[in-house]
Amino acid sequence: MQEKYRKTYGPAMALLCAVALVLSVILTLHSLSGMGLVGCGTGSSCDQVTASRWSLVMGFLPVSSLAVGAYLALLVCIVFLFFDYDTTVRKVLLTVSVTVSLCCLWFIGLQAVKVKAFCPYCMSAHACGLLTALLAILSSRDLDGRSGRWAYGTGLLLAVVFALFHGLTMPAYRAQAGRSDGRLPIPDAAVSPVVGPPHARNAIALLYDYRCSHCRTIHGFLDEAVAHFGGEVCFVLCPTPLSPACNPYIPAGGEDRFAGSCELAELAMGLWALDPEAFRSFDTWLFAAEGTDGWYPRSPEDAAEKARTLAGNRTPDDAWASAYLSGTLELFGRTTAEGRSGIPRLVHGSSWIIPEADTPEGFIRAIEDLLNER
Questions:
Q1: Contact assessment for residue 118 and residue 362, using Cβ atoms and an 8 Å cutoff
Q2: What average pLDDT does the chain have?
């Protein structure tokens, strides 16, 4: 087995582990400094994952920084065994490999279930980590039963402890935030679609896309937030397509993950100008398409048919809709930070935040922090 390790297992593990280490370093720099990543722009799956609260431990430490330590430890063990095929080091290698593989599965599961998006950089690192662990397990088949059981048991325990610690120290929400030099142009709540009393003391603009799963989640918290603040808060609904087809602040080129969002926003606003009650039904319907394996945004064709049904024989006011959407896109542009932006976005006064929250409590905390920004 020692000779096979040096010729086959060792070199393959060293290469895979080195790739995972480099990717983890890149992700750590991105998280700490905001360093741009190719394919990780506004609204991308990568942006959704790296901006997620699940990408942090204790609310401030990037999980990728812990991955750097784990992969570095693996690489040291792998290289050491080329020169000294020590049993203790092999046990450490197997233990860390089991821990890393289970943690990779934990983060893949979080992306699938909680974030509902996949980061290609993260997934590449996880794939390399899983393959490294598989090769480590295969190269350790000749360890005696007691040593193997100790390594597997310890690795499993470490992974479970980490997952519990990660979940228990998770902050209520995570948000990107910013301020403008002057008051931002929030649409007048008295003549705009709102959730909550139009004349509430605090009117908060909510920028969202009808093809955005996080926007759908936040939409479900609005009524509870209005009730929590006793009618002192209302949300001005500002559909903001993330498709470069109509949003000049989204770089063109590459896959348009929000294709069709321009048409959905135009239909919604045209219906609002025609009949606010019809708009509310349409807005709810747009976010209600639930399949057996997740949420699916409505297609422009189905939405157009639904809008025609709600409008009856009346003609939506397309000119008003275009003017309103131009204003929301301007608001989006004025609150967009280079390389680190997205939606849903809350704007109040001269401040804005992009909250990542999957509970009403987390969303309410985000609003409280926004209102305290003066």
A1: no
A2: 88
Q: Give CA angle at 366 (363, 368), nearest 5°.
A: 115
Asked if pLDDT for residue 268 goes beyond 90, the answer is: yes
Q: Global pTM?
A: 0.67
Q: Are 311 and 271 in contact (CB under 8 A)?
A: yes
The yes-or-no verdict on residue 52 having pLDDT over 80 is: no
Q: Are 88 and 77 in contact (CB under 8 A)?
A: no
Report strand pairing: 202-208 vs 233-239.
parallel
- Given this model, what pLDDT does residue 154 score? 94
Inter-residue contact 58 to 169 (CB < 8 Å): yes
Taking the C-alpha atoms of residue 332 and residue 256, their distance in angstroms, rounded to an integer, is: 18
pLDDT in tens, 125-156: 999 999 999 999 888 888 877 888 899 999 99
Give me the pLDDT at residue 338, please.
53
